[in-house]
Amino acid sequence: MQVNPIQLFDAESSTYTYILSSPDNRDAVIIDPVDRHWERDLAHVERLGLTLTHVLETHAHADHVTSAGRLRALTGAKACVPSGCGIPPAEMQLEDGDLIEFGQHEHIAVLHTPGHTAGSMCYLWRGNLFTGDTLLVGGCGRTDFQGGSAEALYDSVTGKLFALDDATRVWPGHDYKGQSVSSIGWEKRHNARLAGRSKPEFVALMSALDLPRPKLMDVAVPANRNLGLAHSV
């Protein structure tokens, strides 16, 4: 059975969604699903004969609406979210160091990596690191809203993610340049925003970005705090 991540893409928001499956039974986990693609994602699960047991969010997204609530309703999967992101309907409010168990022997390690948002988390499974917006291929997420902090992001990446084995594969939450996967070793040496920069240099760089506000932020964030469902609780 497939043990490598299945990577799926949403062209509108440049978001990656991932499906992980257990080799010892038919359990599966999905990370950062996008609402407009819930049928596509379920079709992948069904085509491979899998059973969706967990839906994971890396943070409360500002650029797209999640399908976590819909997938939970259709499959009975547990919604798992960072405890610091204010998503009360989820069954599992994750803390740093938690383990998400699925299949007979599989577990996903939870790493709290604040910076893009205050609650952002990354997930480590079988040498694969799912970084959300914390660490991108050659870059990183913005830090100017939702409790973001350039100082915190620098510490999260350099102190926690760059401490992982260099061979650890980096699977980002977004990509805007046609790049799908990297490694911790490559990012340590080549990341355009972080490699070789001191914290003050990184903070100055991030403060000068002057990025536009995400177009869907006012819709997406409230919806995502309710697992993508229309009415918040």
Automatic annotation (TrEMBL):
GO terms for molecular function: metal ion binding; sulfur dioxygenase activity. InterPro entries: Metallo-B-lactamas, Mito_Persulfide_Diox, POD-like_MBL-fold, RibonucZ/Hydroxyglut_hydro. GO terms for biological process: glutathione metabolic process; hydrogen sulfide metabolic process. Keywords: Metal-binding. It holds the Pfam family Lactamase_B. Residues 14-174 form the Metallo-beta-lactamase domain. The keyword Metal-binding applies. It comes from the Bacteria. This is Glyoxylase, beta-lactamase superfamily II. It comes from Massilia yuzhufengensis.
